[in-house]
Amino acid sequence: MKKIFTTLLVLMMASVTFAQERPVYEKSAEDVLRWHELYERMRTGTPPTAPVINVAEFERAQGVLIAYPQSYGFGIPYTLIAQMADIVPVTIAIRNSSQQNQIRNTLQQNGVNVNNVNFVVGAVDSYWTRDFGPWFVIDGNDQFGVADFTYNRPSRPNDDAHMAIMADYLNINHYDFPLVHTGGNYMTDGYGMSASDELVFNENTNLTEAEIRQLMNDYLGIETYHVTIDPQGDYIAHIDCWGKFLDVDKVLIAQLPQGAAHYQDYEEVAAYFANATTSWGNKYQVYRVFEPGSTVSNARTPYTNSLILNDHVFVPVTGASYDDDAIEVYRQAMPGYTIVPIMEKSSAPWENTDALHCRTHEIADLGMLRIVHYPTLGAQPFDSVFTFSADLTAYSGENIIADSTRIHYRIISEGDTTQWLTSQMYPTGGKTWQGSIEGITDTCEVQYYLAAADLSGRYEKHPFIGAPDPHIFTVAVNPNPGTPDDPDDPDDPDDPDNPDDTTGIVVFNEAAYVVAPNPAHGTFTVCTPHAKELRVFNTMGQMILNQEVEGVETVTVNATNWPAGTYVIAIITENGKVVRKKVMVR
């Protein structure tokens, strides 16, 4: 009898521990009564050192954060946890360390690779890690941190405290960000542009709109903050219930059936983004996904509430007849990504106001190799050479591998697609690398992406997915067909080097910049006519020589103590052009 009673007690305890009671997502009556506590709880700290970068969801992630509140367990299906754990480590927020073994066993029984699961101990009130999870920033000293806003649910103080716990867990900086906010009502592009709906203004009535925008700039580096209406008009007022940045210049906006109560509101925000200028200087590519929601037989269609996790996109589906079309929209908008539909968990189903994105949060790669590039896009005037630059930062602290830093491109003319070619990029000082695509013909399309690697083993592309969805621009008709595009042609009357030309502009002939002897033993000479600066970089991209050469025709470089290898010479001319040469030192 005692054995039977003990067994029943254990089973009862297990059922309590793994109970799946539905939590209340919306602002509760308790939240309303305790709203004043947010301002009492709010902490004001020193902002990160400028310039500040707010990392985007679609940038490289090293993990994903979910929560296991003891009162009602996971809010996501085990299939999602298993698939995420196959990509990155899954970090689970738990109340205390004694839960770990039990949770591990349950996950393992449900097909999760528990070797890729870890735990952060710190009580949580809910599983909505998107709403209270960390907003990752990089300060002007290239140090990662968390901008910790005051979570807009005063009845969930443990959730509000969790960002500080995550900062400590990841051993990164923590910044008290004096603003009431929530992660579900925020998206950013990683280039200083973000978006929310008007909830952010409505919940910070102690601040003017100008003061809110200034805080966003001080703590997150946001230069442009799009604040729109809430077209959904539901209790939650979260932007991720109807919109999502898929990339710097791509946004997904939900669409309702014509005649639905809020149809015009959705069309208004779609038109707003279609007419807005992105951080790359072009207009947004606006993709629409049909989300009739409760307007059609109470359907649950929360398709914008997805999670981008590196090259995978996890999309919530419910078995509705609209699921397949939604998946196809993602495939069209994000070619090259693996689009994964995730069926809801019966005990915690997806809702139109609360789904997969709400219950997960990516963890930025703290050692990421970050490529910042402002691409050439759209229609361009004719030129046979296009030059591109990018800032590369290896946050791992490892060196960038110079030979890996390349432009991958192909030129498409009259429907003929050429194979992918590469062009080397070279360091020009600081974080900046530069390279060119040559041999471009008129009336062609150019597709390209950048790629680089560092000694940590990271290899990144820009845009993130690379060849399946490259940057694209078109080249106009050559205004002087049949004329060589050669600025140094001595027979060209428009050549500024021609004695008959009186413009006073000097264009230099790269052939004049000679390096000899090459290979070099001990010393070598660089011819530097009309140059102002000489830089030399080793194979790791480190600048080992920076010398002013203005007014000097030749420079002798002493390489006696340099390790044998190939070095890149960057000669900066008086008109700002960069001439690159290579020298082999033996």
Structure explained in plain terms:
It is a single chain. Helix content is 17%, strand content 33%. The strands form nine sheets. Strands 19, 21, 22, 23, 26, 27 and 28 form a seven-stranded mixed β-sheet that branches. A hairpin with a 5-residue loop joins strand 26 and strand 27. The protein is globular.
| Large-scale geometry | globular
Count of DSSP-assigned helices? 11
* Average pLDDT metric: 89
Radius of gyration: 28 Å
Work out the strand percent: 25-35%
Give the strand tally. 35
Spans of at least 5 consecutive residues whose pLDDT stays below 50 are 1-20, 483-507
Classify the secondary structure makeup into a structural class: alpha+beta
What is shown here, in short?
This protein is α+β, with helices and mostly antiparallel strands and 586 residues long. The protein is built from eleven helices and 35 strands.
What features would you highlight for this structure?
17% helix, seven-stranded mixed sheet, 35 strands, 11 helices, alpha+beta, single chain, globular, disordered N terminus, 586 residues, four-stranded mixed sheet
